Amino acid sequence: AFINCPELKTVIFGENSKLEAINEGAFVNCGIDTISLPEGLKSIGREALRECKALTTVNLPSTANNISPEAFKDCPKLEAINVDRANAKYSSGDGILMTADKQTLVIFPPAKANSNFTLLPPSLNTIGEYSFSCCENLTSITIPEGVTSIGRSSFYGCKKLKSITLPESLKSIGNYCFNECTALTSITLPSALTTLEYGAFQNTKLQSIELPASLTVLENFTFKHCTDLSEVILPDTLTAIGESAFYECTSLSGIEIPDSVLTIGKAAFSHCDVLSEFTFPSQLTLIAEGVLDSCKSLTAVTIPESVLTIEASAFKYCSMLRSVTIPEGVLTIKGGVRFPYMVYYESDGAFAYCTNLSKVSLPSTLVTTGEGTFWECTSLTEITLPEGLNSVEKGAFYGCSKLKKVKVGSTVTSIGEKAFSDCSALENIVLAENTVSIGENAYAKCTSLKGIYIPSDFCALKLTAETISDTATIYGQPDSTAKDYADEFGRTFVDINSVTIPTGDEVKGDLNSDSEVNLKDVVLLRRYIAGGWDTALDETAADLNGDGSVNLKDVVLLRRYIAGGWDVTL
Predict the structure, then answer these.
(1) Could you read off the pLDDT of 255-294 as tens digits, one per residue?
(2) Alpha-carbon distances of 377 from 18, 55, 320, 419, 430, rounded to whole Å
(3) Do β-strands 217-218 and 195-196 pair in parallel, antiparallel, or remain unpaired?
(4) Domains of the chain (ranges plus CATH)?
(5) From the CB of residue 61, how many other CB atoms can be counted at a distance below 10 Å?
(6) Burial class (CB in 10 A: 0-12, 13-18, 19+), 379
(7) Measuring CA to CA, which residue among 267, 257, 369, 277 is closest to residue 320?
(8) Which has the closest alpha carbon to 107: 88, 121, 91?
(9) CA dist 546 to 491, 551, 553, 554, Å?
(10) pTM for the full model?
(11) Which of 565, 533, 563, 538 is nearest to 550 (CA)?
C-alpha cells in the first residue's frame, strides 16, 4: 500500500477506524518514527513495516491478537513495542513484546540496549521465533533458567553477538536459530538438550563444540559454513548426522564418529579442506552422496564391512587420496555423467577426479558401478574388475591416463560409452566371452593400445571409428562382429584362436613363469625366436620393448636387464 514512501513520517488513524489488518509489506521502507495502531486492529502481517529505518515506537491496541514476529524486520531504531493493558493475547514489559501469560518472548526491539534478562518474569519458558532477529547491536546475552525452547531464527543475523549463556533447562533449539551470528565463537550446550534443529549454527565462527549425550540426532546444515570450527566432540548416543551438517568446515582436520551413528547424510563433510583422515562408523550401511566431496587433504579413509552402497560423488575431488579398499559386502557404487551447457562432460562418480588415487581394491560382492566412477583418476595404474560385476558403465575410467592394466571379470556383459576413453597408457584389453556390447568411444584415444581381444562371435560394437583406438590390433573369431568392425574401419585383425590370450598376470621377462627373471628366460627367448618347435612362452611377457613383436631386440633388452643395466626397466 505504501511501499517505498520514505517521506511518509506520520500515520494517523481515525477514532472510528475499521482497520482490522495491516497486511504483509504494507509500509515497507517508510519514514515513520512512531505508530499508534487503532482499536479494532487484529493482525499485523509478515514484514508489514520492514525497513522503516526511523521507527522507534509501536503502540498496539487491546484487540491485537496476531502479530507476526517478523512484522518489524530490519527496523534498527525500534526501542519499544507497547501493548494496551486490556489486551488478552499480548503484554509488554519494558518495551519487550511478550504473550499475556508472560511465558513467551515474541519480539525484542533491536535498538534496546538492555539485554539483562534477570528482570524478566520467572514464568518465561519460550524464546519465540525471530524474536531477536537482526538485533545487530546485541553483543552478549544470558537466557534465564526456566526457558525450555528457543524458536527458529530467534537470533538470526545478530552479527555482533559474541557470547550467549544457555540455561540447563533448555531442551530445544530451533532451526537457523543462530544462523549468521558471525561473531559467535563459543557456546556450551546444556545437558538436557534433546533437539537441535537444522541450520542452528550455520555461518557462525564457532571454534569448538561438544554435543551433549542427550542429543541423538544432528540435523541437516547444523554447522554448515562454520569455517573456524576445528574441534568437534560427538556423544556415543548419536545415531544420525544430517545432510551438509559440517559442509565447508574448512578448519576441521579430524573428527571421531562414534559407532552408534547409523546414518550420515549427503555432503555431511563436503569441502572440509583440511580433513586428513576419516573412519566411517562400524554399523553404517550407506555412504551417502557427496559425503566427503572435495575434501582435498584427505589421505586415508576406512570403510567398514557393514557398507552395502557407495553413492555418487562420495569421494569426488579427494585429490590427495592415494589408496582405498572397498570391503567385501559392497554391492553398488553409484555415479553419473552430465553434459552441462553442452560444452564439457562432468562426472559425479564416487571417486571422480581423485587424481592421486593409484590403488583400488574392489570386492568380489560388487555387482554395479555407476557412470564415471573413476573418471580422471590420473594416477590409477591397474584395476581388477571382479567376478559378479555386470557392466562397465559410461565413462567409468575415462581419462585414467596412467591406467595400464585392466582385468575384466567373466561376468561383464557390456562396456559403456567412453568407459576407457583417453586411457593413454592402456596396452591390452581382454574381454570376457560374455561381453556382448561395446559402446561408442569406449576405447577412443587409447594411444598405447596394442590389442583388444573379443572372444564373442557376436559383440555389438558401436560402428564409429572412435569406438576402438586405431592403434589396436583386433583379435576375434573369424566370422564375427569384431571381424566386421575391423574390415569396416581398416583395422588389423587376427584370429583369436591362433594366439595366446593374455591373462593380465604376465610379468615382463618371466617367460617360463617361475616368478624369476634370469638367464633361463634368455635361453627360452632365443630358442623361441630361432623357431624351436618345442618352445612355448608368453608373448606378452616376451615383448619387452612393447613394439608388438618378439625379436632379437627383446633378447638384447632382457640380457641388459639381467646384467644390471641402469637404464633398463621392464
Answers:
(1) 999 999 999 999 999 999 999 999 999 999 999 999 999 9
(2) 71, 60, 11, 13, 21
(3) unpaired
(4) 506-570 (1.10.1330.10)
(5) 19
(6) middle
(7) 277
(8) 91
(9) 19, 11, 11, 9
(10) 0.87
(11) 538
